[in-house]
Specification:
The structure holds two protein chains of two kinds. In chain A, strand 6, helix 7 (145-160) and strand 7 (164-173) form a beta-alpha-beta unit. Chain A has helices spanning 16-27, 45-48, 58-61, 89-94, 100-108, 125-133, 145-160, 176-187, 202-210, 214-217, 222-232, 241-250, and strands at residues 3-8, 33-37, 75-77, 80-83, 113-117, 136-141, 164-173, 194-199. Chain A is of the alpha/beta class. The N and C termini of chain A lie far apart (36 Å). Chain A has a single domain, classed as Rossmann fold. Chain B has two domains: 7-126, no CATH class; 137-168. In chain B, strands 1, 2, 3, 4, 5, 6 and 7 form a seven-stranded antiparallel sheet that branches. The termini of chain B are far apart. Classes of the chains: A alpha/beta, B alpha+beta.
Chain lengths: 257, 174
């Protein structure tokens, strides 16, 4: 079985990368999970996952005539497979993001769940690509008007491109008691369920500073518990590895004009 | 020592701060409270923190030793008692205009300087609308109740996604 999720936000600063790794680690208790930093222009997953010093990253797989294999850029960390992306701008310039579909197709052959940490923007074809390629999307939002507006935009883009909404996760919430007032109302507009409310937690900041995923650094923190509860509500659909791989390989993505 | 605005109405040494914060809350004190930890007790500018309160609720904090305002001022004050505390009463209009430091959540001093959860809850209850941590929660609720605006955002996004799908050569029906 395999299902690919784009973890998206539409706005930066919502804790999307922290959420991607936290959901990945929580799901890894029951599934083979692969996390990919698909934010090729503003990669930061490597800093969260203690992979800042690795030699081969997704960038090396996205260049023409790549020598590196998908396995070379895949690292076993925290019970998951992690494909980080580099931060070098020249490597980004040389990379062709459309090759991401081939990378994901290869990964799909040997995993249950693929989480694509997606760019926090809809402003370019390469930025929406993970959203286009994924089976479903998880929206990570803060309970603010701009973040919810942008989350709604991401949802409409996703559904326009045939990607369903798996659920909405409110993250970095200062006052979970008060935010209940809006989660119900927000739920009326989103196609998927509200997966949970993750409190703002110093443990998340500390984990990022130390280069560890939250669930490894502070597994009993309030935020970690909330992420695990959200992951438990995320039902995984078996798309069939071959079907997913075929779909990724055949996705209609023409060359940049 | 820099003079604080207002009249000195109380000066004492206390073992912990929850009784002080509880007393100013109950009295609806408006003015400035200067707090100096017991390990300095020289009551000079360097060791002391200043809270500005309106109607019993802390609004601003400043710590002279680190020259920081807001939550950082409270963090600089964290220390075991005793404390020397001086209360300077002043009109409501003076608090803010002439208070040193930066705004704090009214419950933050109780939260950071005491172990008294009941006091934190009591302070929050007295300041139901003063929650700078989630200042937009009412605005978000109002936004979500405005169905017309939300639907317009969704509709515009769908149109934009379809138009861009054509520009980018994506298959919008995939």
């Amino acid at each position: 079985m395999v299902e690919a999720f784009a973890v998206a936000s539409g706005k930066g600063g919502t804790g999307k990368t922290t959420a991607t790794l936290a959901l990945g680690m929580a799901l890894a208790a029951d599934y083979d999970v692969t996390v990919v930093d698909a934010d090729t222009g503003m990669a930061n997953l490597l800093f969260h996952a203690g992979l800042a010093d690795v030699d081969v990253t997704l960038h090396d797989l996205l260049v023409a005539d790549a020598d590196a294999t998908v396995a070379d850029a895949t690292y076993d960390r925290h019970g998951m497979r992690v494909v980080p992306c580099g931060t070098d701008l020249s490597a980004f310039a040389a990379a062709d993001p459309t090759r991401l579909r081939e990378v994901v197709a290869t990964l799909a052959a040997d995993t249950d769940v693929i989480l694509l940490d997606s760019p926090a923007t809809l402003e370019s074809r390469s930025a929406v690509l993970p959203l286009v390629l994924a089976d479903r999307t998880v929206l990570v939002l803060q309970p603010t008007v701009p973040a919810i507006s942008d989350g709604l935009k991401v949802q409409e883009y996703a559904t326009t491109y045939g990607t369903d909404v798996a659920g909405v996760l409110f993250n970095k919430v200062h006052d979970p008691a008060h935010v209940d007032r809006i989660t119900e109302k927000a739920g009326r507009y989103f196609d998927g369920p509200i997966l949970g409310t993750v409190p703002e937690d110093e443990a998340a900041r500390d984990a990022r500073r130390d280069g560890d995923p939250l669930l490894a650094a502070a597994p009993e923190s309030d935020a970690a518990r909330a992420f695990r509860a959200a992951a438990a509500d995320l039902s995984i659909t078996d798309g069939g590895a071959d079907a997913v791989a075929d779909r990724f390989r055949s996705a209609v993505i023409p060359d940049e004009p | 020592m820099t003079a604080l605005p207002g009249d000195l109405v109380r000066a004492r040494v206390v073992e912990d701060l929850d009784r002080v914060l509880g007393a100013v809350l109950d009295r609806g004190f408006t003015g400035h409270v200067a707090i100096e930890p017991g390990d300095t007790l020289l009551f000079d500018d360097d060791g002391r923190a200043i809270l500005a309160l309106a109607d019993g609720l802390p609004r601003y904090a400043y710590h002279a030793g680190v020259d920081r305002g807001g939550p950082a001022a409270l963090d600089a004050l964290v220390s075991a008692g005793p404390y020397r505390v001086e209360c300077y009463a002043c009109p409501r209009t003076v608090v803010g205009d002439r208070s040193p430091g930066a705004p704090v959540d009214p419950a933050a001093p109780a939260q950071r300087l005491t172990d008294n959860d009941a006091l934190v809850r009591r302070t929050r209850a007295a300041a139901p609308d003063a929650d700078p941590a989630d200042p937009d929660i009412d605005a978000v609720e109002a936004f979500l109740e405005d169905e017309e605006t939300v639907e317009a955002i969704r509709e515009r996004a769908r149109e934009e996604a379809s138009r861009r799908a054509a520009d980018w050569g994506l298959d919008a029906t995939d």
